[in-house]
Every structure is written in structure tokens, then in C-alpha cells.
Design a protein that fits this description.
Strand content: 5-15%
Structural class: alpha+beta
Number of helices: 19
Order of helices and strands: HHHHHHHHEEEHHHHHHHHEHEEEHH
């Protein structure tokens, strides 16, 4: 079979079979078992956890050259040999993108259609997770299992005819691959092979991370020590990562000035003053609140906005610090029930919908996620778009509120 015909058949076969297999296994199985069984309930977050489990930066060059070997074997229709090579790789690294893809090609080439869909589904799971947590840029590099997969990602998913020109690795573990498309336009695709990279830098999981950061924030020896992070934040340190900002916000929970429901009154007053265009007083109250609540999102946002209006200087807004806070909040989740946004103030969700997303607040409610954490549920209405419900985790605010303390005191008396 000619290679062109082979690819045509592969694409047609995969498109047909992709929707035919109904799969899904119990969530009680561990990630590896669920992935092996093509559990459709696996999230991008869980797949990335799995990728980190098998990722060994020390062996990043182990499969270098295999992609080219597989490409040559494909040209010669040597599908049994392709299957053998891929099976050996998948035995020790079941999330290897190259091996999964070419295993599917080998199955189709040998007309073993019963195995094609599962291989392709797994390939798509890995690809979706890689794309979910990276952009291939210097600031958001892709994360894959090895160097061979980095090249495979380009060959398999970039424009047909894209060529790899060179590869450079920085001291920080970033691999930059210079590519050119068929029109000769050059670009760089970045991959992160930093040995020190931790899954907590990739995404935030409240159940996994909150208590960890809370404990670390109280330890002077920790990189997440509250005072250290606060000093960096106050000095506009732009090298602060999103997870470090989240750690800073979590660390503030232990501060004696964290009274989220009391501060809502102050936040509303500041926003009313802004609405009345009383910028001088709004600035004064914002600065006053920031003295005791340095990571308060409303105060940081309105401080910058009022300075813009008072000085007629757009450079004040958004301020560096308010931008860092909102970036970290939006990084902390997707706004879904399973991956809610992390916020410190019960008012933050409404503020983000109104002033960051440019929407209107519809129905407001509350509920729990699957772990029992308390969430604000806010409908966001944007003209011409379907209303969606966004979820904001304020469990820590509830646990810190005077309201809860009053309830607990009443229960103790009974």
C-alpha cells in the first residue's frame, strides 16, 4: 500500500471509529488502569498527573531518533516492526505520544481494527492535556514525556510540511525547537524539561494543595513562606508564578486581618464610591484596606482605576499587583464545579464576572463540590451568549467567618 493511500485510510478509519466505541470505567480504578481502559471520564488534569508520573527528564533523550525510524518503517509498510517498537516503549511509558500514534498506524496497517480506536483515544487524551496546560511559548511551554514526543507533536499536529530546523536547550531546562512552515515562515516551539518542575506549578487543585500551601506559608524555611512571597509581591516581582500568588493568598488566611465577610462591606463601599466617581475617597479607602489586606482584589483593582482617573494616566490601570492576582485566580481553575476558581473574598466572583469578563450577574446561589467544599454559584449573562454558571471556591472564607463561629457556638450550647 502506498504511503499516501495509507494516510488517507488511516484518517478515514480513525474518524469513523473514533465515535463508535463507548468506553468508561469506574473512577475507583487508579489513573493508569483507567487510562489503559480508555476511561472517558479522565480529565485533562488527571491525564497530566499521569504524564508527570511517567515523565523522567533524566531520560528525555532515551527515544530520540525513534520517530524518524518509525517514519521510515511506515514508508516501507513495515507495520509489524512498528507495532513491536511501539509496544516496547508503551510497556514502560504508556503515555508516550509517539508510540501511541504509531501503534494506531500499525494496527490500521495490519487491519487490526479492534485496537485502533483505543490507541487513538489515548493519543487524543495526551494531546488534549498537553494543549490544555501549555501553548508552546516561552512563558507557557508544552510539557511532554520526552524529547522524541516534542518532535512528534510538531510533525503530527502542525501544518503538513513543517520542518524542524534546530533544537536548543537552555540551562533552565527549556527546549526551544525552531521550525519553518511550507511557506518558509520561522517559529519557535518551547517545551519544559526542567527537572525541578512540580505538578503544583501546572495546575491548582484545592483538595490537594490548600492545606499544603497553608502549612508551607507558616514555615520560614519554605519557598512559600508568606512573608517572603509578600515582600516579592509588594516589590512588583514579575517572576512570581501563578501558584506562588495562590500560595500567598492562601497564606493570608492565617493573618489576623482576614475577615472576608466583614471586608465585603468595605469593598462594596469602595465600589460605590467608584460608581459615584468619588475617586479621591475611593483611593483613600483602597489604600487603607490594603494596609491590612495587601492581596485584596477589589482594593488593588480600584486603587489602580482611581489613580488612572485622578492623574489621567492609563498606565496605573490595571496595576501590576491586581493583574497578578486576577491572572492567578483565572489560572486556578476553569470556573466549573469540579475546577472552581479560587478567591479570597465572597465578592470576588461577582467582581470578576462584571469587570473582568464584562458580564452581568444573573441567579446567585451556593453549593458544595464533590469534596464538600463550599462554592459560590453565579450565573454570568453576556448579551448574545448562552448564560453559564461559574463556580468560585470560598470554603476557606466560610470557615473563617464570624457567621460560622456563631453557629458553632450555638451548637456547643445545645
Amino acid at each position: 500500500m502506498k504511503r499516501k493511500e495509507m494516510h488517507k485510510k488511516l484518517i478515514t478509519g480513525l474518524l469513523i471509529l473514533f465515535g463508535l466505541q463507548g468506553f468508561g470505567q469506574s473512577n475507583d480504578l487508579n489513573l493508569s488502569e483507567r487510562f489503559g481502559k480508555c476511561d472517558s471520564t479522565l480529565t485533562d488534569y488527571e491525564v497530566m498527573d499521569l504524564l508527570f508520573h511517567y515523565r523522567d527528564v533524566a531520560k528525555m533523550n532515551q527515544n530520540d531518533g525513534v520517530l524518524e525510524d518509525l517514519q521510515n518503517l511506515e514508508r516501507n509498510d513495515a507495520f509489524p516492526e512498528i507495532e513491536k517498537i511501539c509496544s516496547e516503549i508503551l510497556d514502560y511509558n504508556p503515555v508516550n505520544l509517539t508510540a501511541l500514534t504509531y501503534y494506531a498506524i500499525a494496527q490500521l496497517g495490519q487491519e487490526k481494527e479492534e485496537n485502533i480506536t483505543s490507541s487513538w483515544d489515548k493519543t487524543q487524551m495526551i494531546y488534549n492535556a498537553v494543549k490544555r496546560f501549555g501553548k508552546g511559548t516561552a512563558s507557557a511551554p508544552f510539557i511532554v514525556s520526552d524529547l522524541n514526543d516534542a518532535k512528534a507533536l510538531i510533525y503530527l499536529y502542525w501544518e503538513k510540511g513543517t520542518e524542524i530546523n534546530s533544537l536548543k536547550k537552555s540551562q533552565e531546562g527549556i527546549v526551544n525547537i525552531l521550525i519553518s512552515n511550507p511557506k518558509g515562515v520561522n517559529d519557535t516551539v518551547s517545551f519544559n524539561f526542567d527537572k525541578s518542575l512540580n505538578i503544583r506549578e501546572i495546575y491548582f487543585d484545592y483538595h490537594r494543595d490548600f492545606q499544603f500551601y497553608l502549612a508551607e506559608s507558616a514555615s520560614p524555611q519554605s519557598e512559600f513562606y508568606y512573608e517572603t512571597l509578600l515582600d516579592r509581591f509588594q516589590s512588583h516581582d514579575k517572576s512570581l508564578k501563578n501558584n506562588e500568588i495562590i500560595a500567598l493568598m492562601i497564606g493570608f488566611k492565617n493573618n489576623q486581618n482576614y475577615h472576608p465577610y466583614k471586608n465585603v462591606e468595605k469593598e462594596r463601599e469602595i465600589m460605590k464610591l467608584m460608581g459615584d466617581k468619588n475617586y479621591d475617597k475611593a483611593l483613600m479607602l483602597s489604600k487603607e484596606l490594603l494596609k491590612t489586606n495587601p492581596v485584596n482584589f477589589t482594593a488593588l483593582m480600584e486603587e489602580g482605576f482611581s489613580l488612572w482617573k485622578i492623574n489621567d494616566d492609563r498606565s496605573y490601570f490595571p496595576s501590576v499587583k491586581s493583574r497578578m492576582i486576577v491572572d492567578a485566580i483565572l489560572w486556578s481553575g476553569t470556573g466549573s464545579n469540579t475546577h472552581s476558581y479560587f478567591v479570597l473574598s465572597p465578592l470576588d466572583g461577582q467582581t470578576i464576572i462584571s469587570y473582568i469578563f464584562g458580564g452581568n450577574i444573573g441567579t446567585m446561589g451556593s453549593g458544595d463540590d464533590s469534596n464538600g467544599y463550599f462554592l459560590d454559584m453565579l450565573d454570568m449573562e453576556i448579551e448574545g451568549q448562552e448564560t453559564i454558571t461559574l463556580y468560585f471556591n470560598i470554603d476557606h472564607a466560610i470557615n473563617n467567618s464570624e457567621f460560622k463561629k456563631q453557629i458553632e457556638k450555638s451548637l456547643d450550647k445545645e
